[in-house]
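Q: Here's a chain of 364 amino acids. Please give me its 3D structure as C-alpha cells.
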Amino acid sequence: MRGVDTTGDANAPGTRDFVLAIVLIGLTVAEGAIRRDLPWPIATVIVTVVLLAGLPWRRSHPLVLVLAMAVVTTGFAVAQALAGVPQSGLVMMFALLLVPYALFRWGTRVARIFGSAALAIGVLVSSGLATGAAVDRVIGAVVGLLVVGTVCMVGALRRERAASRQREIAMVRAQERESLARDLHDTVAHHVSSIAIRAQAATARGTDAAEHFTAIEEEASAALHEMRTIVRTLREPASYSPERGLDDITALAVPGPPRVTVRIDVASELPRLVATTLYRVAQEGVTNARRHAIGARSIDIDAHIEGEDVVLSVVDDGQPATMGVGFGLRGMAERLALLGGELDAGPADDGGWVLRVRIRRSAP
C-alpha cells in the first residue's frame, strides 16, 4: 500500500477490526449515557465515536488517523476553552492509543516523523488550554507525552521484533535454497553427465549399444529418484534427511567408459553428516572427471583412515582441462568448511587430476 511500510503483518481491515470498533463504539455510547459530569456529553460522545470508527484502518492508514485524532481532539479542546468549559473526556478515549501504536508499528519513516510532531503538538496544546494552575498544566503535558511516547515505543519495539523475525526467516530460506541448489548440482548433474557420456559411447562404432542403453536407463532412474527427493524437501522440509552415506560410494563404481573403481577402508562408524559429505564429494569428483578430464580411461576413488581423520581421494588419468572454480568445487569446499575439513584439488605428479579431502571422524 502506498505510504505504508509493508514490514510485518500490515494489511487491510478484517472482520475482527470492525468488530472491535463496533464494541468500542457501543461502550462509548453507554459511558456517555451514564456519565453525569460531562459538560458536553453529546459532543464528547460524537467526537469519540467518530475517531473510534477509523480504528479498522489503523494499519493501512496510520498517519491519516493520527492527524485526524490530533486535529479533532485539539479542536475540541480549543472549543471548550473558548466556551469556558473545563476539559473532559470519556474513559473509552484511551482506546485511541491504538492509533499512535499503529503509527510506529506499521507506518513509514516519513509518516512516523510527521505523526510524532502532530501528536506532540496536540498534547501540548490541549494541556496548555486546560484549566488550573500552571504547574498542573505542566504536569499534565509531561504525563500526556510520557503516555503517548510509551505507546509509540511499544509499537516501535514490536515493529523491530517483527522485522528481525522476517530477517531470520529470509536467512533460513536463503540457506535452504543454497543447500538445495548444492544438492541439485551434486546429484542430478552427476547422473546427467553419465547419461550424456553413455549416449556418446552408444553412438560410437564397435561398441555394445545395449550395455550403454542399460546404463543410461539406470542413471536416468537414479536422477529421477534424486529429483523426487528434492521435490519432497521443497514440499515437506521438516521430513527431509540425507539419504546417502559412505556405503553408497560403492554404487559409483561402473565398468566405463571411463572405468570407476572404489576402495573403502573405513572400519569405524562415521557420523551421518560426515558420511553424507564424503559421498557428495566422491560423486562430484566423478562428475568433474567425466566432464572435464580429457581422454580419461579410469577414475579411482579411495577412502581410508589416517589417525583421527578420514581421507577420500578421487584420481583420474585424463589430461586436465583449463577451467575455473565451478559450483561443484565451491559447494564441496563450503560443505567441508562447515565441518572443519580440508579440500585439495590439482594435477597429479604422474598426470591426471587429484581431488583429496580430509575431515575428522568426530566432526559434528
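Q: Can you summarize the key feature?
A: Residues 244-364 form a domain with the Heat Shock Protein 90 fold (CATH 3.30.565.10).
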